Amino acid sequence: DVDEQILDDLLKKRIKPSIIQNWFDPFHQDRRLRERLRKHNEEDPDNRILYQAYSTLGTQWYHHKGLTENPVINDKLLQTIASKYGV
């Protein structure tokens, strides 16, 4: 996972990243970093950085936020949508 400080450090390097992979799920959408990347890509289109999202169905909430319940798996709306599609 890359936060804004790590992104600042990476952008100072001679060889810049071409992709950043970060935790992303319905309740953690990383909006600030994605907006920073969007602006970077507009300002420097020859050195675009892609944002690649990953999620393991919400288990990051245990590790990064210290929750004891998984808000993604336990969300009633998401359960309803999953049931509708047989997931």
Question: How is this fold's topology laid out?
Answer:
Elements: H1 4-11, E1 19-23, H2 31-43, E2 50-54, H3 60-65, H4 76-84
Parallel strand pairs: 1-2
Put simply, the count of helices is 4
The oligomeric state is: single chain
Order of strands in the sheet with most strands: 1-2
Outline, from the CA principal axes? elongated
Low-confidence stretches: none
User: What is Rg?
Assistant: 16 Å
Number of strands: 2
The N- to C-terminal Cα distance equals: 27 Å
Give a verbal description of the structure:
The protein has a two-stranded parallel sheet with strand order 1-2. The protein contains 4 helices and 2 strands; from the N terminus they run H-E-H-E-H-H. The two termini are about 25 Å apart. The protein has helices spanning about 5-10, 30-45, 60-65, 75-85, and strands spanning about 20-25, 50-55. The longest helix is centred in the middle third of the chain and has 13 residues, at about 30-45. With about 90 residues, it is an alpha+beta fold.
